[in-house]
Amino acid sequence: MAIDTVALSGAVADVFTIQTILFIMMGIVVGISVGAIPGLAHSLPIALVLPFSFILPLAQTMGLLIGTYVGGTYGGSITAIAFGTPGTSGAAATVADGYGLTQMGKGKKALQMGLYASVLGGFFGSFVLIFLVVPIGRMAPSFGPGELTALYMLALSLVVVFSAENPGKGIMSAGIGFFLAIIGRDIITGGLRFTFGIRQMQSGFPLVPLLMGFFALPVIVKEIHEFIKDPDKSGDLGESILDEAKKKEPGLTIKELFKSGKAIGIGSVLGTFLGALPGPGATLASYTSYSVYSQISRDKNYGKGSLDGVAAAEAANNATCGATFIPMLTFGIPGSSIAALMMAALVMEGVPVGPRVVVDHTQVVYTLFILMLMTNPLNLVFGWLLIPVFTKLSKIPAQVLWPIIAIFLVIGTYAYSNMPYHTIIAIVSGFIGYFYKWYKLPDGPLILAFLVTPLFEASFRQALTIARGNYLYFVSSPISIGLWTVTILSIFFFLRRKKEIIEDEE
Amino acid sequence: MSSRKILSLLLVLMLVGAMVTGCGGEEPAEAPEEPAETEETAEASEEPAEEPEEEIDIDIVVGFGAGGSNDLTARYMAEHMREFGINANVVNMPGGMSTEAAYYVSNQSTDANMFFWGHTGPLLFEPAAGDRGYTIDDFEPIATLASPTFVIGNRQGAPWETLDELIEYIQDNPNDVTFGGQGEGNVRHYIVEQILPPDELDYVFVGLEGGADVALNLTGGHVDVGHLSLAAAVPLHQDGDMTVMVNTQPLTERDELMPEVPNVSEYGIEEGRERHPIALWAVKGTDQELKDRLSNAIREIAEMPELQESFKDMGVVAHYLDADETWDFYMDVNDTMVPDYIEWVEQLD
Q1: Is B141 in the same domain as B161?
Q2: N or C, which end of chain A is more exposed by having fewer CB within 10 Å?
Q3: H/E stretch holding B243
Q4: A349: closest chain B residue by CA
């Protein structure tokens, strides 16, 4: 795509105004704040600021929306790291290592790694959007039901990775995820499954309340229980370790950041790739990156409190931000709910979004590109300013902190779609989460199975219909063959590596 | 950092949370206690000195997520309602093909000022197919305003250009054509089968997940023909990635956005028109004067060139039907289409 200098200068003039920059900053602050509130999906504030498109010029509207989106995607990691409670579903993969680090007294390092990985992943996604929007966008329709089946099978194979330490527990965990995923309407035929006659169950088990309840409630109950049991002993998160060291909590060093460079790189690439495809989204991207890197990382604390784990998950979920625009700008097809909101804002601004938007509205496209690039450094600044605050917040006395998080959780899950039913689901998920903690079941298989099952089921059934029952359809394209090969090789690689580890231990 | 600063930050976060919840929530707006005193009647509106109407706050519940045609039409309508002193807050409550939202509104009190923005799908077809916890009798119509246009289009390079040619091709090449629809076993699938009866034509129908999915599969050549919204189809049609063959708009024959595309009724397939224009619905028993005020506002909004232009760009026809016309339209669908649809669903099972 040759650069249209007139359009570019117009876009620069639109974006580099004090009003637009203020709206971007406002969006980032709102996004980080709302993203950090457990249960409040960041699509909610974006939907709430959508009406601004009726009154604001395009650059300001999109600055506000993109700022909210990018800030919200990062903001979800703050509570995931500080309190073990993901602010957004995309930050769920960050909990194990992020909160593990906080409990080790390294919360500040984890928060900084989350921020830097998010910003770097976001930058990567934005650059790919700018320079590769057309080739990647043209690739997206090549992923039909057959190719998507192979892709989701690859994602499901990660369940094996998560189940490594105890296959029995892993399969049980995945089984619960499968079951929860198929509750509700059959995604193809609309028939009802496992609703037990409960009308609200027809809509299925919603993702956000599930994740919020699953991760947050067990932590809240445990902390409150410990406080009630022994008010004097119950301290702040990581406080005892800090006290022992008698020093201020150290921040992330450049060396540590560079050490996690590979995790950030893998997360950025996977996040961008999965973000550009309709369906997977930030949650699956971060889990995929997190589990793929678990096979590469040599950090023994991976899964319990590793900076690599935070980096891989956070880079991936923010890399989806830029990538999610790709199918929208190449075909006018929103690949995610956030992209649909962005597209709606553009339509309300009088910009019809479709394959010709790059040609017919070049200045608008350049404006979006510049806004995407600008939000990342501003996200860095605001995130950097807020990290000391959230580090201190994790030191709030337990008797104040956990009840407040519980209140936010209830408000957030209710506000997610204004349904009391979702708050009940969060509580039920809390029981499931407590059961998992009690029996030390791995949560990765449950989340992956829950996320991928409906996608896999739909693609598989669609592909089989299109193929008139011929299973060879699943290996009829080079993309499918490539994905099946990667799936088989990765399982083989994993099993071999596992065998080597066992032999080393012996 | 001092504990005062921390507490201040917590307060700010709680306020943000409360604001977001409040804005997106369903907090019942206060109903005007005495609307009759300030509300204009039809006769009064003809008088030269009009008193400004008292402002009212209402919630319009949309059963789909923000960004789709259901949501955008509600937002455009809500924006223009402000000119009539009606502060309308659009609340998205996706789930269950819009039945969650309809159920929620049907359980509100009559003075909650909460209204449902929906079409025949959640109000007629869904309750007829099974117990959804409500029926259309729990609601009263206010007015119809928007009728999204859906189309049938084919992939780039398909060896047919019109609906007749497609039918001929299917007859000549049985089991060769793959049709991508928006879900399976639902009213949209039913409409497709009215146009291309499977007992006469041998083709494969695959239920995809929505208009965007249909567009992607058409563009990628994974399906040969697809059923999607006009708004999604137009840019792809203009770029040569697909060709729109026919529209299924129920209220007008041609859509201004693509006037060259014929209506399915022009092929003599009247039952292939998708009869689901979107209307505003109140809980049964809602104050008549409030309903009249909203209906009058919608009638004037429907005439606004700005709204018509916005709707046109989205592939939506702005078409006003008052409460009685809306009810008659829905009852006609209920009497003529729903029994056949139920029979069709049972035959699928």
Answers
A1: no
A2: C
A3: strand B242-247
A4: B310
